[in-house]
């Protein structure tokens, strides 16, 4: 929703406190703009108190000699002189009712600003004045800093010239800064006794911000005519033109920087997962000016002066699956600042600090490690977390089997074809050497089964069997009673299909053992969904049977049993921590791994961090008085205090989200009782999913938790296919209907002929319904 026009320079006025002179100095800016032959638009989104004392009325009274150029407006007016949230509650007649949600409030400002932009006949200025201090509440009760953040308007901060004003001004500035606001200038009154400006000018000069001290207004006179004359004389003496020129310059610099970024980026970056030979030019570069909640604010050059150069674009892939609570979440930002201020970064070997210890204990006792894991090893990201998991598993197997020398070097892993565990070479070696995820040193070590998959086709859930299994079944498609039946693993364990899986896996492993293939030392799985391989939803029964077979006879589901057969690694980097609507896939599968890896959602997408969890039996394979037998693996930023603190805050907020009205309603739509264990559901509407699965251009659809996957019919399917991208290309165009607010396009990524869409855990239901509508319309246009 960010707004940036070439001809309409907009600034938002925040105050370091109440009664610091926001309206007086905003009036001076409005007058100066009009005198400079600019149309001057003034907006007071919320006004409380008598109309004669309203800020917009003051602007009207003192708009100066060019008053015909001045336009004022107020969107929400309350006549009780109290805080906006209280005024709204009193007007609504109850203390609990939120009269205007933040989204509605912001949309009304966006609509008004766009109208002003279309009305301006030439270069113009606009000032949006807030109420009270930076943390004063808005109509809904949220603070102004949080509420106005989606607009991302450049800011003028009105400092406090009174006793204590230095602290108030710096505190207000830091509050703005931590929420990403651009502060273009600080204005305050000159006070000859306290002289706050003398301190604040050099302080902010070091931070690249101009501070301007201006004469304070004369005392208010009781007689109206005399007071008006005195105030007018005051405004006439103020010289605001230097400030005006500075603000205009900052506006022009911002536009110039955004316009130059595509070309400079093409000359500077080597992007990940991008074939630069297919990048046609600057128009293919997505310039992200800011991000808030589920949306990017992206730059688009415009020829029409009434159209914003910034466009809202939904982050349709949750920024490579990392976002849990949306971009720029204030609680996560403050958590990072808290840890940064307390620790910075501290080294971790044989040390501890509160954020890391709290996180480790949370993961072990209340998180995905509950009941089976005894240790947490921290690292940087999912790929390095998987490297650690592989080292753990291979060593544990070697110790158990008393392997030495070259026998340890010849070990392989067992997995599923289409799996992906990261781009570091060790993680790559744990995947089949196929497709495009490869490099010269990639040496696939092991064996990978073609897995049965789950999808919704033509409105019905089916299990598609691989070629190796299909001949033993009447068809390669196995119809299912329902999606909930497919994921009821315990119920399906005694079915004929489970017997087929068991026999097939056992026979294959026996053949491998007798063929002289590398000795298998670990089972490595992406539970339920293999993400980068093409959003492959694996039949969970196959994965459960696979774990049971490699562990051999015995109580495979016993959580406290030391590993048997092969150690099992669960790569939950993508699927864990409620990405699929469940904290972990362990309860659904009915078996615990020996090692699991977690990242992405772990820190809400704010900072990198990974955690590799291990059972005590795995840990004991490294336990010795010989240092050479330790896990000699580490990263400079292991247990990064910022990452650990952010992770703790993320997990706390995610647990709250589990009980939200949106989750309860979504579970009800999928006919799942809230809080029922081992059940599957999605934030995507089941009727929408079924309808899309029947579209002429769609082969199959699947949805779990926040994830929606659409496989397009394509005879030349594969990672390099452009069919899904082409089919849904219109999603990259924002709506133009005046009634559609917020208007947004969708930034999405494809895996060949598979398009996937991913929400945050707290994406508003109305936003998801809007995305569904856009996807359906795009499919209809392509039919």
From TrEMBL:
GO MF assignments: adenosylmethionine-8-amino-7-oxononanoate transaminase activity; dethiobiotin synthase activity; pyridoxal phosphate binding
Organism domain of life: Eukaryota
Q: Which Pfam families match?
A: AAA_26, Aminotran_3
Q: Which InterPro entries match?
A: Aminotrans_3 (IPR005814), Aminotrans_3_PPA_site (IPR049704), P-loop_NTPase (IPR027417), PyrdxlP-dep_Trfase (IPR015424), PyrdxlP-dep_Trfase_major (IPR015421)
GO biological process annotation, one example? biotin biosynthetic process
Q: Where this protein primarily resides, as one coarse class? A: mitochondrion
Keyword entries, A-Z? Aminotransferase, Transferase
The UniProt entry's GO CC annotations, sorted and at most eight, read: mitochondrion
Where is this chain's protein located in or outside the cell?
Mitochondrion
Q: What is this protein called?
A: PLP-dependent transferase
């Amino acid at each position: 929703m960010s707004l940036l026009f070439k001809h309409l320079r907009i600034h938002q006025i925040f105050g370091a406190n109440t009664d610091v002179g926001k309206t007086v100095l905003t009036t001076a800016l409005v007058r100066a703009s009009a005198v400079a032959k600019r149309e001057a638009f003034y907006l007071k989104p919320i006004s409380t108190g008598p109309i004669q004392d309203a800020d917009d009325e003051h602007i009207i009274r003192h708009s100066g000699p060019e008053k015909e150029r001045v336009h004022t407006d107020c969107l929400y007016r309350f006549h009780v002189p109290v805080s906006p949230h209280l005024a709204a509650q009193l007007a609504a007649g109850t203390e609990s009712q939120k009269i205007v949600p933040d989204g509605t409030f912001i949309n009304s400002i966006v609509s008004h600003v766009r109208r002003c932009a279309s009305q301006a006949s030439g270069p113009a200025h606009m000032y949006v004045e807030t109420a009270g201090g930076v943390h004063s509440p808005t109509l809904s009760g949220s603070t102004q800093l949080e509420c106005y953040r989606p607009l991302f308007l450049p800011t003028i901060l009105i400092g406090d010239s009174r006793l204590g004003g230095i602290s108030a001004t710096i505190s207000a500035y830091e509050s703005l800064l931590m929420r990403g606001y651009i502060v273009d200038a600080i204005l305050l009154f000159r006070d000859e006794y306290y002289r706050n400006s003398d301190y604040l000018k050099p302080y902010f000069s070091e931070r690249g911000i101009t501070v301007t001290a201006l004469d304070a207004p004369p005392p208010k006179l009781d007689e109206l005519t005399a007071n008006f004359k005195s105030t007018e004389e005051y405004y006439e003496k103020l010289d605001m033109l230097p400030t005006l020129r500075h603000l205009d310059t900052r506006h022009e610099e911002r536009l110039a920087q955004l316009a130059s970024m595509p070309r400079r980026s093409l000359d500077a970056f080597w992007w990940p997962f991008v074939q630069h030979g297919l990048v046609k030019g600057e128009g293919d570069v997505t310039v992200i000016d800011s991000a808030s909640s589920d949306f990017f604010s992206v730059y688009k050059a415009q020829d029409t002066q009434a159209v914003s150069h910034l466009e809202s674009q939904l982050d349709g892939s949750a920024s490579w699956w990392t976002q849990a609570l949306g971009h720029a979440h204030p609680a996560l930002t403050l958590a990072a600042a808290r840890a940064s201020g307390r620790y910075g970064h501290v080294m971790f070997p044989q040390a501890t600090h509160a954020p890391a210890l709290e996180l480790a204990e949370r993961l072990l006792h209340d998180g995905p490690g509950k009941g089976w894991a005894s240790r947490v090893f921290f690292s940087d990201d999912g790929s390095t977390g998987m490297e650690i998991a592989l080292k753990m598993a291979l060593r544990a197997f070697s110790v158990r089997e008393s392997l030495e020398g070259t026998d340890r070097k010849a070990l392989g892993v067992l997995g599923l074809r289409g799996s992906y565990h990261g781009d570091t070479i060790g993680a790559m070696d744990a995947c089949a050497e196929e497709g495009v995820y490869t490099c010269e040193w990639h040496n696939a070590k092991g064996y990978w089964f073609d897995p049965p998959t789950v999808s919704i086709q033509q409105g019905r859930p089916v299990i598609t069997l691989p070629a190796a299994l299909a001949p033993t079944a009447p068809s390669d498609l196995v119809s299912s009673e329902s999606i909930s039946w497919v994921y009821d693993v315990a119920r399906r364990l005694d079915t004929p299909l489970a017997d087929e899986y068991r026999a097939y896996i056992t026979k294959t492993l026996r053949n491998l053992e007798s063929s002289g293939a590398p000795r298998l030392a670990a089972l490595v799985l992406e539970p339920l969904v293999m993400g980068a391989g093409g959003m492959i939803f694996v039949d969970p029964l196959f994965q459960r049977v696979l774990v049971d077979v490699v562990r051999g006879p015995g109580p495979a589901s016993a959580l406290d049993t030391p590993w048997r057969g092969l150690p099992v690694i669960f790569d939950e980097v993508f699927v864990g921590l409620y990405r699929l609507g469940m904290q972990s896939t362990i309860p659904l599968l009915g078996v615990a791994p020996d090692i699991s890896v977690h990242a992405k959602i772990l820190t809400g997408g704010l900072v990198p961090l990974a955690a590799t969890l291990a059972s005590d039996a795995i840990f004991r394979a490294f336990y010795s008085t010989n240092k050479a037998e330790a896990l000699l693996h580490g990263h400079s930023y292991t247990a990064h205090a910022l990452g650990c603190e952010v992770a703790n805050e993320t997990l706390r907020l995610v647990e709250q989200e589990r009980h939200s009205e949106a989750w309860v309603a979504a579970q009800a739509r999928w006919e799942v009782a809230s809080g029922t264990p081992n059940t599957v559901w999605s934030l995507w509407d089941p009727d929408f999913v079924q309808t899309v699965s029947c579209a002429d251009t769609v082969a199959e659809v699947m949805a779990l938790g926040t994830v929606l996957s659409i496989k397009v019919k394509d005879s030349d399917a594969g990672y390099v296919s452009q069919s899904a991208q082409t089919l849904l290309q219109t999603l990259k165009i924002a709506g133009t209907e005046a009634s559609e607010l917020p208007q947004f396009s969708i930034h999405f990524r494809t895996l060949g002929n598979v398009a996937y869409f991913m929400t945050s855990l707290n994406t508003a239901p109305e936003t998801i319904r809007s995305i569904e509508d856009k996807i359906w319309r795009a499919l209809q246009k392509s039919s």
